[in-house]
Amino acid sequence: MSTDTGHVSGSFDASWALNNPEAQFDWGYRSKHGSVVLSKLITGAYYGTTISYSYYSGCSTGGLQGFRDIELYLGDFDGILAGAPAWRTTRLQPDNVQVALHNLPVDAPTHISSQGNFVPERLLCTHTSNKGACLTGPQLETLYYIYNDWRETNQTFVFPHFEMGSDAQYGFLLNTDPGNHTEPGIAWIRKCLYNDTWDWHEFTYQVILDADRINPEQANVGFNFTGFYKRGGKII
After folding, report:
1. Cβ contact 67:88 at 8 Å
2. pTM score over 0.90
3. Distance between CA atoms of 158 and 139, rounded to whole angstroms?
4. How many CB atoms lie within 10 A of CB 99?
5. What PANTHER family does UniProt report for this protein, alphabetically (predicted)?
6. Each residue of 189-221: pLDDT tens digit?
7. Beta strands of 93-153 (E only): which ranges?
8. Spatial contact of 7 and 199, defined as CB atoms under 8 Å apart
9. What's the distance, Cα to Cα, between the start and end of the chain in Å?
10. Would you kindly state where each structural domain of the chain is located, as residue ranges?
11. 118 three-state secondary structure
């Protein structure tokens, strides 16, 4: 089975969520469970017998929804494959904004390997450098925010850093136009957390505090799957 989670939209279109908590809850967890229940009934009626096993596969928000399902409904699946799950929406989306506000390095090398001991300071431009293959001081600062955990006052951990070599995703996840911040975190904050009038210039750590408190879609996943494990469930 598959589900549209209660709405039809593009990747960056969160208009369906604005002032619509019921649709947000559908996206966060309800539609998945409801679809599973109905699918089992339909499959059982077609084959004339109940199914023996049920499994789930999803990635990104699909991985998140798989985890959320087995956290709330132990009997839905016997196993799940959750690839790159967007584990904690209330931190992930604001983190995209936090990093994007620093902009991207201009004319940076196109790939940074995760192998070896990467020292970004070695890329600092000098008077003899090829300007297309080095970074300025501000660009190195941007790189620091991308590849270091987000921490706030007293080194409070907020969200993990981007992995080395993930630069192919920059154009999708980070701001590449200083005058037009349109990446997905902005849409989530405007449509799910606050409202259309929220200005990205006002971004502060308060966004995290509000997001964790409100948890708009009730989609955040905990860290304890003991119940699923005890009934023999498998997770990859």
Report:
1. no
2. no
3. 23
4. 24
5. CARBOXYLIC ESTER HYDROLASE (PTHR33938:SF2), FERULOYL ESTERASE B-RELATED (PTHR33938)
6. 999 999 989 988 889 999 999 999 999 999 999
7. 150-151
8. no
9. 19
10. 17-87+221-235, 89-214
11. coil
